[in-house]
């Protein structure tokens, strides 16, 4: 794997502040500003028999003012029965109702975790409409600058607002706050954790191009592919690197490295060639020195992964499961395993 790193001429790691500056300026855009003010309201979403009485479920309305304008969005919160404090996930999700394909509620509760379920389209639409939701509040006249944030940064910003609420809830353990997501929302989870040190753990599931996977010589989706179909996920500057990845002053290992010295896992699926599992594992290797510089163990692995492999010894974890592009129960169980191993 070291040979592959050298062949791809990956940029050397910089300080966290320098890497985040480059990633925001050249790929995701600069994060939306902090709210001028924020408040929360909580209403029960189900009765006391939900999940066989193992936990309670609420809908939290996050109301805030940004750039002098009002904006609000809902997020579900599930907490196990008991006093806690419980470790918890902010799951940035493609589905709203609970439980759902990407939110195995009872397994989460049975493993002792609370969880937010943030439906990404409640924040802003997954399209090039920048008048919708948060996008319209931030950019009432549309994006003007090449470094204005795209939709991924907006969804990540909303995940961080869940932490603002968590700080008010004594049953949630802020020292064990995690963020996770799948595919484009796996990219989002990494951006959320990289730009907010309150997340002690992040999981990227099959996030591929512009997420966990190295862009140089990616064997799956490329910068050209993603900018042609989903340009609104990113800032305008990112288009400069279409078919031009070797001119980038960064690569995706910067994103993982910006989470140091905390914890991050990358999950790949062996049939998900579009997400380039080899590129995702390569990113773990390339990001490792940032963790080692901070006195942590980084990515401990001595070979290319084969199906069924799990490498969880260091602060960077990686696993390669059998199957396709999906956020499965197996992926969730791997997250539980990794987090428990670090406590």
Structure notes:
The chain is of the alpha/beta class and 343 residues long. It has a single domain (2-341), classed as Alpha/Beta hydrolase fold, catalytic domain (Rossmann fold). Helix content is 29%, strand content 22%. The chain contains 10 helices and 10 strands. The protein has helices at residues 2-7, 16-28, 105-110, 133-138, 151-166, 184-194, 223-229, 253-257, 277-293, 329-341; strands spanning 37-44, 55-66, 69-80, 86-93, 114-119, 172-182, 201-205, 263-269, 310-311, 316-321. The longest helix is centred in the C-terminal third of the chain and has 17 residues, at 277-293. The chain is globular and about 55 Å long. The two termini are 30 Å apart. 49% of the residues are buried.
User: What is the quaternary state of this protein?
Assistant: single chain
Please name the CATH topology.
Rossmann fold
Strand residues, percent: 15-25%
Identify the CATH class.
Alpha Beta
Task: Indicate how many domains the architecture comprises.
Answer: 1
Total strand segments: 10
- Gap between N and C termini, in Å? 30 Å
Please give the order of strands in the largest beta sheet: 1-2-3-5-4-6-7-8-10-9
Q: What gyration radius follows from the Cα positions, in whole Å?
A: 19 Å
**What is the arithmetic mean of pLDDT?**
96
The main sheet comes to:
10 strands, mixed
The helical percent reads: 25-40%
Class based on secondary structure composition and strand pairing: alpha/beta
Provide the CATH architecture: 3-Layer(aba) Sandwich
Low-confidence stretches: none
Question: Total number of helical segments?
Answer: 10
CATH superfamily: Alpha/Beta hydrolase fold, catalytic domain
